Input
Amino acid sequence: MTIKLGAATASWLVAACLHLPPAMAETAPAPAVSDQDISDAYTYLLGRLLVLRQQHLDMQEGMGWNQLIHRKPGAVDWPNPNLDVAYSEAWVAVDEKSCTLVAVPKISGRYYTVQFLNGWGETLANINERTYPEHPSGNFAVCLIGAEVALPADAQRIDLPVRTARILSRLELGKDWSEAERLQHAFSLRPTGTPRLPEALPPVLFEMQKLPGVEAFDRAAAAMQEPDLSSSMDALQAKVRAIAEAAKTPAERARIDQVIRTRAFADFAKAAATIGPGIIRNRWVQPAVSGVYGSDYLTRTLINYGGIWANTRAEVTYFRGAQDGSGAVLDGGQSYSLTFPRDQLPLAKVRYYWSVTATNAKTFRVLPNPLNRFVINNHSALEYGEDGSLTLYFGPEKPKGAPQGNWLPTLAGQNFRLMFRYYGAKDGIGNDAFFPPPLIKRS
Output
């Protein structure tokens, strides 16, 4: 049944809820910021706070400025990691008088890249044989634009538009992990001088499943000291500042918090299902952009939340699967298969390699299992069908007749999602010409 209220009745009802006389309710000034402004500004700011959160966690763990940390394979703790690469990480500070020298070993026949990101999760540069074909290894000097620094003659200079950056190097593990780790430890970095370190900001720490409310805007002024590279974000930054100012008033602070917890959280959850304006086919979702986002702050924040440090599409193409071909959510207690016909084999679609991982649908962490197997890729002991097709299996138990190397265990009682990565995707990957086939529920 629908109830229609007249204007006078509606005015009286609002006034009663607010404990105000009707006349006061009718003449009360409009809120300084709208609910939509609050939702948009919160989503925008959250993207920056997620990076700050990770920075504080890194520093708590013992990372320091201009110190490269080599991670053991699999020993990373951020959402949705790729577990078939060796990661090395650092936070880099540069200024007008000091650059950071990065040494890259000679690598052949194995994917690698050294990615630089700013404080919003935007990719600034990649070092590899594709971006620097004339200088794929050796010394690189990472400098602030305009810095006047004497550099080694053999150093390839890379100018950054920011004073601090996140470094994330990825080196394909391949079949020979020991060789990969040897090469990983040949990466190094050191400052040329004594750079001015950034001012320490108050900790920005929160649980990923318990996002901050209005208190997020208490961090706005400090968080936005980091320049956003897109000028199209100026209007959003103005909204963030206006809301932060409004939140200093108790009544408005309470309203802003309520809007965040009801409107902004709901908007964010709805957008997460499709990674914002993502492209959907066969129930797989591909983000519309990754690594470099332009004006698409929504996708940037969603990726920072669900898979921080994403790289550009020139490096890797991502597909996320959270549903089977019928649209049902992936259930860790069920079994599924994914079959690639002979003419659509993943390895034929990449220049380097491919992989698929399964993670908890809420925490984005890998699913524990007795085999400690968290990834399938082209280096796995795969078996192909008589017709040349490739079938991968996902479920709590290996399906009868399924090859051991083609099976990725899941965990009963937990919904999960898959992340398919195509490194060096060939033409056609990610547009209407090709998406992974749909997942088929087997039980």
Observations:
- The CA atoms of residues 292 and 303 lie 11 Å apart.
